[in-house]
Design goal:
Structural class: alpha+beta
CATH topology of the domain at 24-131: Penicillin Amidohydrolase, domain 1
Largest sheet: 9 strands, mixed
CATH class of the domain at 24-131: Mainly Alpha
Strand order of the largest sheet: 1-2-5-6-7-8-9-10-11
Order of helices and strands: HEEHHHHHHHEEEEEEHHEEEEHHEEHE
Number of strands: 15
Shape: globular
CATH architecture of the domain at 24-131: Orthogonal Bundle
Radius of gyration: 20 Å
C-alpha cells in the first residue's frame, strides 16, 4: 500500500474511542488567507468535534504536506504507536484523556475525520514526546519577560522543524464552554502548544523540556490544550499541574486583566510555579529547585541548544534600555544569531533543522497578543505581524 493510501485508509491498528455526533446547526467558519505579513487565520464555532472537523478539512493539505515532508519521522511515530508497548501506552493516554478531557479527544477525532487521515496518524503526532520518537526533533523555544512600573510584556519565539515554516496558521475557536481562544497552530497537532490567549484573559506559551523517559499520565499537548479554556489564572495552573502527567513541560501562563505572569515547570512527579517580579527568561531546561533534579532530563539537549540560547539571552538582557524601552528592544534579543545554530533566532543550518516559526508578543496593558510571522530578525523590521484582542476580558 502506498503511503498516501495509508493516510486516508482505516487499516491502521485501531484504538478505543467513542465518536460523538456533531451539532452542525451551531457551526460557523470564516477563513482569511495568509498575506505577506500574516499567517492564515481560521475562525470556527461549534461542538468540539465540529471545531476539529472544520479545522482538519480546512488545513488538510497542510497536514498531508507535513507528513509527506517528514515521512521518515512520521513513519517512525507510527511504527512505535503500533508496536505492542506503543499500543499499551497509547491506550492509557487515551483512557486518561477521556477521563479528564473527553472533549479534547472529540476534537482530535474531528481533525482526523475532517482531513480524511486516520485517527492514529493524527494521534501519534499529538503524543510524539510520550512515544519517545524525538531523535530528529529540533527542540526549541525561547521566552523573555519584561517588567517595570509601566510595562508588563511577554515575548516568545516559537521554534519547530523547518517543515512547518510555510504551513503554520492561527485559529480562533468558540467551543461550547463559551471560552473562546486564539492560538498559533501546528497542522495535525491539537491546539495549545503554540502561543495562545482566551477571552477570559488567560495567555499561554510553552517550552519543550527534554526527557529520556515518559510515564503513564496525561500527555503534555492534552494539558496545554486544556489550559486554553481556563476561566481564571488559578484554574489554568490547576489544569497544568493535574496528575498524573506523562512528560515534563514548561508553561508561561498569565492573566492580562490581572496583569500577572507565572512561569511553571512540571515533571511527572513534581512542579514549581514562580511569579517573576523583574526581568526573566526561560529556554528548554529545568531551573527551579523542585524540578531541576529530574533524573530523566535530556542532558545532551540541555547542554547544547537550550543552554546556548539561555546564555545568549542572559548576556544580552542588560542591553534593554533602562529608560523608556520599546518592545523592539526585547525582540532584538530574540532575533539574535549569536551562537548559531543554537541562537535565540533559529535558522536551519546543516543537519540542524530547527527554525523560529513565529514570535509572540503579549502586552498586558493593552491586553493584546501580537504574532510575528517567521523569524523575528526579518518579521519585526518588516512589520510582518497581526494583532489579536478580545473586546472585553472578564
Amino acid at each position: 500500500m502506498k503511503r498516501r493510501e495509508f493516510l486516508i485508509s482505516s487499516l491502521a491498528i485501531p484504538l478505543v474511542f467513542k465518536q460523538i455526533a456533531s451539532a452542525k446547526e451551531n457551526q460557523t467558519t470564516n477563513y482569511h488567507p495568509a498575506t505577506e505579513k500574516t499567517f492564515e487565520f481560521f475562525e470556527v464555532t461549534g461542538s468540539y468535534r465540529d471545531i476539529g472537523f472544520q479545522t482538519g478539512r480546512q488545513f488538510k493539505k497542510h497536514i498531508t504536506k507535513l507528513i509527506e515532508r517528514r515521512s521518515g519521522w512520521h513513519q517512525n511515530l507510527m511504527n512505535i504507536l503500533t508496536s505492542r508497548p506503543g499500543q499499551e501506552k497509547s491506550r492509557e493516554y487515551i483512557r486518561l484523556t477521556e477521563k479528564h478531557f473527553p472533549h479534547i479527544l472529540q476534537e482530535i477525532q474531528g481533525i482526523a475525520d475532517g482531513s480524511g487521515i486516520h485517527f492514529n496518524a493524527i494521534w501519534a503526532m499529538c503524543i510524539k514526546s510520550e512515544l519517545g520518537a524525538l531523535d530528529n526533533e529540533p527542540k526549541g523555544c525561547s521566552t523573555l519577560f519584561y517588567r517595570d512600573q509601566q510595562r508588563l510584556w511577554l515575548f516568545h519565539n516559537e521554534d519547530g522543524h523547518e517543515a512547518y515554516r510555510d504551513i503554520m496558521f492561527v485559529l480562533k475557536a468558540a467551543p461550547p464552554s463559551g471560552v473562546e481562544y486564539i492560538s498559533m497552530v501546528y497542522p495535525g497537532i491539537i491546539t495549545g502548544n503554540g502561543p495562545s490567549m482566551n477571552n477570559c484573559g488567560i495567555i499561554q506559551t510553552t517550552n519543550y523540556i527534554g526527557s529520556t523517559e515518559s510515564e503513564i499520565g496525561l500527555p503534555r499537548y492534552i494539558i496545554g490544550r486544556a489550559v486554553l479554556e481556563a476561566k481564571a489564572l488559578q484554574e489554568a495552573l490547576e489544569i497544568a499541574t493535574l496528575e498524573p502527567r506523562a512528560y515534563p513541560y514548561h508553561h508561561n501562563i498569565g492573566h492580562l486583566g490581572e496583569k500577572k505572569y507565572v512561569s511553571l515547570e512540571t515533571t511527572p512527579l513534581s512542579w514549581q510555579a514562580e511569579e517573576p517580579q523583574a526581568n526573566y527568561f526561560h529556554t528548554n531546561h529545568l531551573i527551579f529547585n523542585k524540578t531541576r533534579d529530574f533524573e530523566f532530563e535530556d542532558e545532551q539537549y540541555k547542554n547544547t541548544s537550550s543552554l546556548s540560547r539561555y546564555q545568549v539571552i542572559e548576556k544580552e538582557l542588560p542591553q534593554i534600555p533602562f529608560n523608556n524601552p520599546v518592545p523592539e528592544d526585547c525582540i532584538k534579543i530574540l532575533a539574535s544569531h549569536t551562537q548559531a545554530p543554537y541562537s535565540p533566532c533559529r535558522h536551519p543550518q546543516g543537519e540542524v533543522t530547527g527554525s523560529t516559526l513565529g514570535t509572540a508578543f503579549f502586552d498586558f496593558k493593552d491586553k493584546k497578543m501580537r504574532i510575528f510571522r517567521g523569524n523575528p530578525c526579518e518579521s519585526a523590521p518588516q512589520g510582518r505581524f497581526a494583532d489579536f484582542t478580545f473586546e472585553t476580558l472578564e
